[in-house]
């Protein structure tokens, strides 16, 4: 797959009408004249020097590489997921040729829209919209504290948004989003991980070619175009048509479904299922409440008994005060403080 200017094409081997391929053999790949960027860092610098010697425009190559990947993602939903320098071949005329499609990512239209929503929210510094986009994209297997997640995303956007929009830490910022999701027990599907990996890799390659390249400048038009397309009159009409069809289907099936539900309730009654973990929580709460009541009765008895002992001056005394009464008060105070601390830890204060 190549990009030259705005055109995307497919590299094909020249036809060989009289070529005979032996059984189990392979057709010889076409020989391309160009410069491979190579994978090792030292080799990459050598390749960049070779490109300069041949008179190539390195910033133009960087722009072509970024545009190529963005078009694959936002226009085709099928992208090269491993565009490291070893898989990039520069042909004459700053034509980019991507090699080795062993790792390819595929996105549904909804996937690109969610990703665009997240990027647009980051560009606008809209934390609520970013949280919604992240939750729609992530795999949710349990309860999520949306407020805590939104708070962390707010801090992330507040400190990282400027660098993202400056195009100097795009891949790093997306990696930070993944880390935040993991802290909240969330995970992105593999297709998003491949997308982030591809963007971060291409960003690094582009910055090797042109350190001043602003990836966000190239990314923003695709995001804005996708959002405009979603809210276009044609798209809105299509969504309304789908909704109307779904409502018609629901209108036909709802009476039958409700009738079946009522018949089932009349025949079998209403059954409530409790999970073992729910019963364990109820049992634990009951035992804890019983313990607090018991402690309260003991503390009350100590206070009453100590008051009676002090009033009658029973037993040994210190400065005219009954030691038994003082010990009772001290013990009641210690038990009371312990119960208050226990209630505070259980957040039942």
Question: What features would you highlight for this structure?
Answer:
alpha+beta; 2 domains; 64% helix; elongated; disordered N terminus
User: N-to-C SSE series?
Assistant: EEEHHEEEEHHHHHHHHEEH
The beta-strand count equals 9
Radius of gyration: 34 Å
Biggest sheet features: 5 strands, antiparallel
- Measured between the Cα atoms of the first and last residue, the distance is 65 Å
Provide a compact summary of the structure.
The chain is α+β, with helices and mostly antiparallel strands and 349 residues long. It contains eleven helices and nine strands.
Describe the structure.
This protein has 349 residues and is an alpha+beta fold. The protein has helices at 41-53, 58-76, 109-124, 127-137, 146-165, 170-183, 190-209, 215-230, 233-268, 276-312, 323-345; strands at 2-4, 7-9, 35-36, 78-80, 88-91, 95-98, 104-106, 317-318, 321-322. It is built from eleven helices and nine strands. Helix 3 (109-124) runs antiparallel to helix 4 and helix 6 runs antiparallel to helix 7. Strand 5 (88-91) and strand 6 form a beta hairpin. The protein folds into two domains: 1-10 and 32-233, no CATH class; 276-345. Helices cover 64% and strands 7% of the residues. Residues 1-25 have low confidence and may be disordered. The radius of gyration is 34 Å and the shape is elongated. The protein has a five-stranded antiparallel beta sheet with strand order 2-1-6-5-3, covered by helices on one side. The longest helix is centred in the C-terminal third of the chain and has 37 residues, at 276-312.
């Amino acid at each position: 797959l190549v990009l030259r200017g705005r055109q995307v094409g497919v590299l094909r081997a020249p036809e060989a009408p009289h070529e005979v391929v032996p059984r189990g053999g392979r057709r010889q790949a076409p020989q391309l004249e160009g410069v491979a960027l190579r994978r090792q860092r030292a080799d990459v610098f050598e390749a960049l020097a070779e490109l300069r010697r041949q008179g190539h425009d390195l910033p133009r190559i960087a722009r072509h590489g970024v545009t190529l990947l963005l078009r694959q993602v936002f226009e085709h939903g099928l992208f090269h997921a491993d565009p490291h320098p070893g898989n990039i071949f520069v042909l004459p005329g700053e034509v980019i040729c991507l090699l080795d499609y062993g790792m390819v990512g595929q996105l549904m239209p909804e996937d690109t829209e969610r990703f665009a929503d997240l990027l647009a929210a980051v560009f606008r510094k809209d934390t609520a919209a970013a949280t919604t986009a992240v939750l729609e994209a992530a795999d949710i297997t349990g309860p999520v504290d949306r407020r805590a997640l939104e708070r962390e995303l707010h801090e992330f956007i507040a400190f990282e948004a400027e660098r993202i929009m400056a195009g100097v830490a795009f891949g790093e910022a997306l990696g930070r989003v993944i880390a935040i999701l993991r802290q909240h027990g969330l995970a992105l599907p593999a297709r998003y991980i491949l997308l982030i990996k591809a963007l971060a890799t291409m960003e690094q390659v582009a910055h090797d070619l042109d350190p001043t390249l602003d990836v966000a400048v190239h990314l923003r038009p695709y995001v804005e175009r996708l959002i405009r397309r979603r809210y276009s009159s044609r798209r809105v009409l299509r969504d309304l048509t789908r909704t109307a069809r779904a409502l018609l289907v629901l209108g036909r099936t709802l009476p039958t479904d409700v009738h079946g539900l009522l018949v089932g309730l009349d025949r079998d009654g209403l059954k409530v299922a409790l999970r073992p973990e729910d019963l364990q929580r109820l049992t634990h709460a009951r035992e804890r409440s019983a313990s607090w009541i018991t402690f309260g009765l003991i503390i009350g008895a100590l206070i009453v008994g100590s008051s009676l002992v002090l009033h009658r001056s029973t037993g040994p005394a210190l400065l005219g005060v009954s030691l038994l009464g003082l010990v009772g008060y001290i013990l009641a105070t210690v038990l009371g403080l312990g119960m208050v601390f226990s209630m505070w830890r259980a957040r039942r204060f």
